[in-house]
Amino acid sequence: MLDRCLSVVAAMALALLVAPATAQPAPGTTEQYRKQAVAELEALRSGPSRPARARNVILFIGDGMGVSTLTAGRILAGQSLGVDGESFETAMDRLEHTALVKTYSHDAQVSDSAPTATAILAGVKTRNSVIGVGPEALENDCASGLANQLPSLLAIAQQAGLATGVVTTTGITHATPAAAYAHTPQRNWESDADMPAEAIEQGCRDIARQLIEGAVGSRLDVTLGGGRSAFLPNTARDPEYADRTGKRKDGRDLIAAWQAANPSGTFVWNAAQLATFNPASETRLLGLFEPSHMQYEADRATDAAGEPSLAEMVELAIARLSRNGQGFVLLVEGGRIDHAHHGGNAYRALTDTVAFDAAIARAIELVDLDQTLIVTTADHSHTLTISGYPDRGNPIFGTVAGGARSAVLARDGKAYTTLGYANGPGAFAPGERPDPAAVDTAAPDYRQQATVPLSGETHGGEDVVVRASGPGAHLFRGTIEQHTIFHVVREALLGSEP
Ligand SMILES: [Zn+2]
User: Fold this and answer.
1) Cα of 339 from ligand 1 centre, angstroms
2) Considering only Cβ atoms within 10 Å of each terminal Cβ, which end of the chain, N or C, has fewer?
3) Residues identified as active-site
4) What is the pLDDT of residues 229-268, one digit of tens each?
């Protein structure tokens, strides 16, 4: 059945991402379901008691990873291993504490990644499109941005002598990673070429420059992601793609500037170079693996120069940051779940979700949960739905099938897929809905159907979840504000706020 919905190669690649220890046979009888629930109840009763203070924190943000994405990703992970997807347990599922999280921003019911990352990393709600500044700052207004900067969790950690790192699959100057080290009234000011002259004259700096020269960015021990073009002049050729250049108009080569400021530091731009980095060297590491975002997990194997997986980057970051005797804070973003959803493409969104979960599984293997707080959350949701009444075990990318696997048809006499979007590029003209039974809905490039036609599918505004294990994780319960996540993490790391 799975062979019908996933190519064998894709299924094998996915299976490698998923921890085999979770492939338990699914219960099927009354007695087995009761035993399953009693075992879970026992685990809930006897949850581990952890110390209150954390030495290290790893904060995982799945960009756009709403609850429907978590559920569909879980089913895909199980089905890729050839086991029951619905009852499968991901690494995230096994974390001990959970809360619902309200994701509205200061000025929007449905937020973008800039204010939500600021909430998680700096502890206050702010306006859509702004990063690392409070709600008093106005979008695109340089002066108010400069006057209302907020210290991030990583800034506070650096002041306390901890090591810090940022790992993402997006460009390193994209909204979520930028919230770790930058302050800007406009998230799109990634290089000087993206900024109005007036803002530059008023003293605002582009995000790439803040990474290299800023108080927090210049002190990061590990920085891994995409986004090289924001660091290179528009006259410089990209090392990987001969036909591409940098974006900067000021003529500055910020990678060279970083190397000059860190003579013993290591800059890498492909997987082979990264593999030679020795974490015991205790030198700084900067890796920029694409001119723009890194590849989706589904496409990573085809990258010309070779890109590391998110799990590989996380493993190396933990090894390097652990050399600091005081502890560390590491931000990890699975950043392209969001991008695939915007394209109405559940295949890449969910395969990136499975890769994100594999990175969390790797981190859990590498750390002691009595010392390290692991937090996983999303910044916001998307409009993905899992709907209809597909049979148990129906392929998650398939069309809805009922008893004896016969297709369930809509009122127009056509099939429909289990996964769909409320809006986006998968919408169709009235009366012209294509029949998904006529195409391969499990193909990597298939776009799920959508209701409202928009060029890009949008974020969703419902609550997301935060899940955590380790010191302080027990405080995540009930329904909380997104910016409370920062304060829980900060307290676990440094004690009560002054
Ligand atoms: Zn988005």
Assistant:
1) 6
2) C
3) 113
4) 999 999 999 999 999 999 999 999 999 999 999 999 999 9
